[in-house]
């Protein structure tokens, strides 16, 4: 059962509101402009960062969004002492000092310190912007240091089109990429991709029906690695085939930007799943496993215009590697994680996939279309763009399958 945070939130909001009101009154009494922090910094001789933070507090539309900008008690004292020297009224100064003291008491009673306050505020209301963005970023930095590896971006792109011979079946091509992958410790050996598939009784559930998009690598050997777009050396990659799928591992090596690599894998299947719902399947879904600390996840569905139902997916995130299908919104054995639901349509036909985070994205998309025998002009796309996706989680994009037409 979720914890009731409403008493804490009400007290915290009231305390921050009193700080804002007291500072507004104080600024007004000395003719200071709350929207001109540079002027405040010059006039009262306070640090520019302090002046900017106070301005953010005073101009924020929601008091709770200003929590990351709240100065500490000593910084507030510096500001108030500086304004006092310019002739501020004693009563307005006292109100401001009392408001800061009340805020400190509220924080101490409920959470102990400002750092913990930020984490709680970050998770209070999913409607407030990029929910849990601060917490995800902190986790990314910590996991990068602990594990000794990180990436600039994680790409997951699912291309879908009706099968040419069996229009009630869907062909799939899936691209997974890590861009700007770099070691932070030279001893690291890391599973950069874990390729899995699942489904109820459809071809998509069989590993044997999936094939590499690049038919052969150097020397003619089949490999999920897309050599034409990856700049990772063969000696830095190990491919391990398991009963449950395939793991692609990064070998130990040099650290930092000079040894950073872009790595892509791609596979495809013909007639991978039915276009229509059945007694066993009413939804379709694909998951992006976050097995490397990553600054950004780009999760795209690129679908033939006749499969418009896939372009309004529901987003789900679970702590753990999700392998099994489920019709339930939250599988019983996995911990759900709240993430933003902002899946946005991409403009254009062909869709505008290009982004600075994936320099070769357009070339990859046209390669996939040519390999699969598709006209890319017939496709539309949508995108989930998530900052600092939680490490060790699976992000799912799930869509409802339509009823088969009556005969």
Write up this protein:
It is a single chain. The protein has 407 residues and is of the alpha+beta class. It has helices spanning 6-29, 37-44, 48-59, 73-84, 90-110, 114-122, 133-147, 361-372, and strands at residues 149-150, 153-162, 169-183, 190-195, 211-212, 237-242, 245-250, 261-274, 283-290, 296-304, 314-319, 335-336, 343-346, 379-387, 393-400. The radius of gyration is 26 Å and the shape is elongated. The chain contains 8 helices and 15 strands. Mean pLDDT is 84; it is low at 198-208 and 322-330. 34% of the residues are buried. Helix 1 (6-29) packs antiparallel against helix 5 (90-110) and helix 4 (73-84) runs antiparallel to helix 5 (90-110). Strands 1, 2, 3, 5, 8, 10, 13 and 14 form an 8-stranded mixed β-sheet that branches. It has a 4-stranded antiparallel β-sheet with strand order 9-15-11-12, with no helix packed on it. The longest helix is centred in the first third of the chain and has 24 residues, at 6-29.
């Amino acid at each position: 059962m979720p914890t009731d945070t409403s008493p804490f939130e009400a007290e915290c909001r009231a305390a921050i509101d009193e700080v804002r009101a007291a500072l507004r009154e104080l600024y007004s009494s000395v003719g200071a402009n709350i929207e001109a922090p540079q002027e405040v910094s010059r006039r009262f001789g306070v640090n520019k960062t302090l002046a900017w933070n106070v301005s953010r507090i005073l101009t924020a539309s929601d008091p709770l969004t200003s929590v990351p900008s709240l100065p500490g008690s000593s910084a507030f004292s510096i500001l108030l002492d500086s304004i006092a020297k310019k002739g501020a009224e004693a009563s307005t100064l006292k109100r401001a000092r009392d408001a800061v003291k009340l805020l400190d008491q509220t924080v101490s009673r409920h959470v102990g310190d400002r750092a913990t306050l930020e984490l709680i505020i970050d998770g209070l209301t999913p409607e407030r912007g990029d929910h849990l963005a601060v917490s995800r970023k902190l986790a990314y930095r910590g996991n990068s240091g602990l594990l000794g590896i990180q990436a600039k971006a994680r790409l997951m792109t699912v291309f879908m089109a009706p099968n040419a011979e069996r229009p009630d079946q869907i062909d799939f091509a899936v691209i997974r990429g890590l861009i700007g992958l770099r070691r932070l410790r030279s001893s690291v050996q890391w599973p950069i991709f874990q390729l899995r598939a699942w489904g109820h009784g459809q071809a998509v559930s069989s590993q044997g029906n999936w094939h590499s998009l690049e038919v052969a690598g150097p020397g003619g050997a089949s490999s999920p690695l897309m050599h034409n777009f990856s700049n990772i050396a063969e000696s830095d990659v190990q491919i391990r085939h398991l009963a449950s799928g395939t793991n692609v591992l990064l070998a130990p090596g040099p650290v930092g930007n000079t040894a950073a690599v872009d790595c892509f894998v791609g596979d495809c299947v013909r007639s991978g799943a039915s276009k229509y719902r059945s007694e066993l399947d009413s939804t379709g879904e694909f998951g992006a496993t976050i097995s490397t600390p990553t600054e950004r996840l780009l999760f795209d569905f690129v679908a033939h215009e006749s499969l418009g139902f896939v372009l309004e997916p529901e987003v789900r995130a679970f702590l753990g590697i999700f392998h099994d299908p489920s019709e339930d919104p939250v599988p019983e054995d996995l911990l759900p994680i709240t993430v933003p639901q902002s899946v946005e349509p991409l403009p254009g036909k062909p869709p505008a996939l290009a982004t600075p985070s994936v320099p070769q994205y357009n070339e990859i998309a046209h390669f996939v279309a040519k390999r699969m025998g598709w006209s890319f002009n017939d496709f539309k796309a949508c995108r989930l763009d998530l900052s600092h996706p939680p490490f060790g989680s699976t992000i799912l994009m799930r869509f409802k399958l339509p009823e088969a037409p009556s005969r």
